[in-house]
Specification:
The structure is a homodimer. By secondary structure, chain A is α/β, with parallel strands linked by helices. The first copy, chain A, has helices spanning 6-18, 21-27, 32-46, 62-88, 108-118, 131-139, 185-190, 201-211, 226-234, 281-293, and strands spanning 51-54, 57-60, 94-101, 122-129, 145-148, 157-164, 167-171, 193-196, 219-223, 240-243, 256-257, 268-274. Helix content of chain A is 40%, strand content 21%. Chain A starts with 5 loop residues before the first helix and ends in an 8-residue tail after the last helix. Chain A binds a DNA duplex through residues 3, 5, 7-8, 20-22, 30-38, 40-41, 53-58.
Chain lengths: 301, 301
DNA sequence: CCATTTCATAGAGAAAAGTCTATGCACTAT
DNA sequence: ATAGTGCATAGACTTTTCTCTATGAAATGG
């Protein structure tokens, strides 16, 4: 391991991202054989194979996965050092790689905007994906900070709640349930439901709501985005439940918020980072920003 | 920075530890000119000088300090990766570098023993120094975890309390104050005090106790260890205050515990790590061990 | 089953990394 | 002031890194 070079880690990280030697070579402006050669050397100094070729496809071995994590951590450390140096020269700068689940994109930009205003030198990037992908990214240390609903129990992460995230049941305004009071969960479950894809946090929350009563709901339609769900609800295709934030930009009355049992469901948004991973000053600043500027509800994980 | 090598960082880290090129060369089995040469290259790729020679002495520039931190972080990441690989091969192993303030050495070994028993593969090392040195180490990322009394406000660290740490005032059993009830702080302050060196956490705690009442105490003797203080107290040279744990191994009655105002002072032991630094699985395990196995009192920082 | 895609191997050359010995220079301590 | 300590510089050598072009081999997908 002592004979590995930064360059090799850089190349390997590109491979891990693209899962392709050729693609990695392109992005780094190298030829493919160069990449192959370097990876051979890297695997030699690690002492174990890093990738596993099955036909055309390439996949990382477990060791490869771990090495990709280490490589990203090392680059985070180096970036932190360089930010530090820049700060000493008076240039306040930094980069913050952030990932958020789809639904968070309804409020995250406003937060980012305010943060960017207060920290002009910091360059913020936001990647949006669904909960499942986000947790995979987190385990791979792809980004520094992650915004998500309830964090998973099993993952190695540090998560803190920073904002309310109520889940509300909605229907079209002319739906028979609209205006009804204290709708029972059993009755609600009989409705045709419109749900996000599995892997979505919102879907998990809906399923959990009913699972507490031993009810399993069967979606009538499975839709890949909150916007698609809203369209379908307005088209009278069924009812659904969404994070309240997803409705913020709509005039009251456009959707009927159902007064059902246990609704709205009380949840929170969490800011998380992988346990044990290094993080930049910019990341610390953003965490502090979230936890200070918003009234936090609930306690630390 | 892309042209730096791991080797160069390794050499630089040795220099940062020894503050000497020659000494670094010796520990790495290199000649001194080799070290000089490598450092020149490293400084070139960083773009700024890393050390500053004033006569015989050498000191790190600010950039050098930051680079030493980065280098240690990188080695922590690599070690973590190697532990990970070993774990996958069935060898559960790992290293945990721990630092603790002097007074913690009265109970830390027992904790470490229990931890080592539960995690046989993990190699634990404990460095002992006073509070001031410990905080310096923490800022330099010299170790992964730190056990100390009340953590400083200004340092970039994550600290959590895991154990009570009462401060008790003591005197020789035949001291006039022994057996007296509710001794006033003013009267206590008039006694000849035996204090630890400045830079000690225990000393700071004593000073703070009196400072709350606007009293400044002047030590009659300044002693470099808790053991020396105990000896002096028994010799009738004065009174002092120590962490209760420092008295654990002594039979009751050997020292008189004074029933003074605000005593015992309620404090806690904290487990801390530098913010933003990577840490190994072993370190996470130790943190969890401390926080789970002991009844924690108080809340997160 | 053939064209295409993808990674591996071979051979080769320039650059750099990494180390040494020998020596010079600057400051310190006695 | 003189010896000693500690880093810098010069010159030289070997090894490794890093990259290329050209070509081979394996698997896939229409």
């Amino acid at each position: 391991m002592r004979h590995a070079t930064f360059r090799q880690l850089e190349i390997f990280e590109a491979i891990a991202r693209h899962l392709s030697f050729t693609r990695a070579a392109e992005t780094l402006h190298l030829t493919q054989p160069t990449v192959s050669m370097q990876m051979k050397k890297l695997a030699d100094s690690v002492g174990e194979p890093l990738v596993h070729q099955t036909g055309k496809r390439i996949e990382l071995t477990e060791t490869g996965q771990a090495l990709a994590v280490a490589a990203r951590d090392i680059f985070t450390v180096l970036e932190r050092f360089e930010d530090d140096m820049a700060a000493r020269r008076g240039l306040r700068r930094g980069r913050l790689r952030l990932a958020a689940v789809t639904t968070a994109s309804y409020f995250a930009p406003r937060l980012l905007g305010e943060f960017a205003r207060r920290h002009p030198g910091i360059e913020v990037s936001l990647r949006v994906c669904n909960r499942e992908q986000l947790i995979a990214s987190l385990n791979e240390h792809l980004d520094e900070l992650y915004i998500l609903g309830t964090p998973p129990e099993d993952a190695a992460l540090v998560a803190r709640p920073f904002m309310e995230n109520p889940l509300v049941a909605i229907a079209a305004p002319d739906h028979p349930l609209a205006g009804r009071h204290r709708i029972g969960l059993a009755e609600l479950a009989e409705q045709p439901w419109l749900l996000r894809e599995s892997g979505s946090g919102t879907r998990k929350a809906v399923e959990k709501l009913f699972a507490q009563r031993g009810i399993t709901i069967h979606p009538r339609l499975e839709l890949g985005s909150n916007e698609a769900i809203k369209q379908a609800v307005l088209a009278g295709l069924g009812i659904s439940a969404l994070s309240k934030q997803a409705l913020d930009l709509h005039p009251t009355g456009q959707f009927a918020i159902l007064d059902a049992e246990d609704c709205p469901v009380r949840r929170h948004w969490f800011i998380a980072r992988p346990a044990g991973a290094p993080h930049s000053a910019a990341a610390s600043a953003f965490e502090r920003f979230l936890l200070d500027s918003r009234p936090t509800a609930g306690t630390t994980l």
